Amino acid sequence: MTATTQSLSELVNVPVLRAAYSDRTAWLMARCSQLAYVEFETSQEPQLSGALKELGLDFVRGFSNNATCAYLARNDRFAVLAFRGTTSDFRTILSDIKIRFYRDKSGARTSTGFSEAYKLVQQGIADAVDALEPSLPLYITGHSLGGALAAIASTRILPSDRIAACYTYGCPRVGDGEFTLQLWKVPVYRQVHRSDVVPHAPLAFGYRQAGDFRYIKRNGKMVQDPNTIAFLGSFLFSVVTDFKSIFLNHRIAGYVEDLQAWALLRLKLDGEAQSAQAAADSITPPLNPVVVQAPGAQPASPANPD
């Protein structure tokens, strides 16, 4: 096989498992992120399994090491890897505030705290993902610290072509510009709920946000890639007028509630649009109506041009 033929073979092997953004998937991944807070590593695995069943998913296994926690679930159509976010456990809080950069082999720099936290479960996750069918799309998700771990996982799980998408909620800045470039191969959908403060942190120089930005406004409407000045202005307004809200809006419950309402609204509007189109199609005459002639009648002669 020549180099040219080999290159062509690699190019035509397109990543068909990757998924576009979906309102319903955004809600489902938010719910999976919420369930990552269930302490399956103690005695609550039955509760987690039951809640996942309601979402049409089966619990595969959990990962827990020194306060870094995640779980893998699946059905016949896709798998979900969900990471737990910040809890009252002081060890996860320490992971959040370690803002010194860690440089990986590629030269990209990520938060030392986030990188150290992911390493604790990296091998277990790699083994579990490898055990899945290669054709099964994998969604990766997480809230808060869990969102940061989900972003890192999206650059570490190989091959990246098997990752359908990464959905994060209230995710802090994870790394530098080189790290964000690594995420270009994976669809990353970054949700920010109203005046949530965490996506603005850490403020240290060099950190960048990554992903397709979806902003959930106070009125519940979602905006894709909002105007930067307007977005920051709204956040600063909340800081001045309702300081407590910048922390309350970080709760995963708020994300789940607003994303569910938005997804249901979009389904309703889509249904109404389809009904209106069907009604219009039923009364619109065809563009080329068929003229039925009486038996024995001669066809009309075409008009002569002037």
Shape: globular
What is the first-to-last residue Cα distance?
Answer: 67 Å
Low-confidence stretches: none
Please identify which CATH superfamily we are dealing with.
Alpha/Beta hydrolase fold, catalytic domain
Q: Percent range for helical residues?
A: 40-55%
* Strand residue content: 15-25%
CATH topology: Rossmann fold
Rg from alpha-carbon coordinates? 25 Å
Describe the structure.
By secondary structure, the protein is α/β, with parallel strands linked by helices. The chain has a single domain, classed as Alpha/Beta hydrolase fold, catalytic domain (Rossmann fold, 3-Layer(aba) Sandwich). It contains eleven helices and ten strands. It has helices spanning 3-12, 23-35, 40-54, 90-97, 112-119, 122-130, 145-156, 177-182, 228-241, 245-248, 252-283; strands spanning 58-65, 68-74, 79-83, 101-103, 109-111, 138-143, 163-169, 188-193, 212-216, 222-224. It has an eight-stranded mixed beta sheet with strand order 1-2-3-6-7-8-9-10, with helices on both faces. The model has no long low-confidence stretch (mean pLDDT 87).
